[in-house]
Fold each of these.
Amino acid sequence: MTLADLPLTDQGFLVNLADWNEQIAEQLAHTAHIQLTDQHWEILWFTRNYYLQYKHLPNARVFAKAIAKALGEEKASSRYLLQLFPDGPLKYACKLAGLPKPPSCL
């Protein structure tokens, strides 16, 4: 299945969480001009697992605190996250992880 076969929101988020897989994540990243590295995948898997565990998306501050607790302070820094997702760490981590758009994102 390709991204073109899947329903997306007007901002390019997957409509159905179950449609996501690593191939779809790669395609979403390509449309956002992001080349996924191991560092991206670490944040994507963290974000996806957070959502599946807590059934909600955090705001940016809670997101950073959760990353710091799970992966270390250096990976929660805004500088690190912006290097990975320059157009918005929380928004793009959620988008590429196949999650809904965070309510705190425009």
Amino acid sequence: MQTSDALTRAESLIAIVPDYPEQGIVFRDIAPLLADAAALRASIDALIAPFAGRFDVVAGIEARGFLLAAAAAIMADVGLVPIRKAGKLPRPAASVDYALEYGTATVEMHDDLVAGTRVLLLDDVLATGGTLAAGRELVETLGYSVAGIAVLMELDALGGRAALGDDSVHAVFHA
């Protein structure tokens, strides 16, 4: 299957779930995409391709970002760093509070990398940009550099890209 065909199929596998986790929110369920090997491979290839050779480690944002980051790290032959919700790490080095489209949250990250490590931030969806902005702030606070930000899907109407204020954001799909 050609790459464009595989990506079209991958996008068609993303299920739309209205009113989850709250009334008025439209959730994008990537579980069917993850279950399809060809769709997953094409998606991960497209996710990291613009940053090839420009990052040393992949940081995945909890929770679905972990799944994508693990696959991306293996495919790029680099390490993986989790960015977790508050209270999930045994020894957080830094934390950042941020706003979601339906509440607030905190993310944390360890400081296990060498200063200056180039980090590719990955998440499943770019909505308002708060989670990824917090992830970028964590990475930079800990002395690492952000090589880029990649997401499986960008929800264009929510303006998350503008909130991140930079051109290093790559989205495989748009809704």
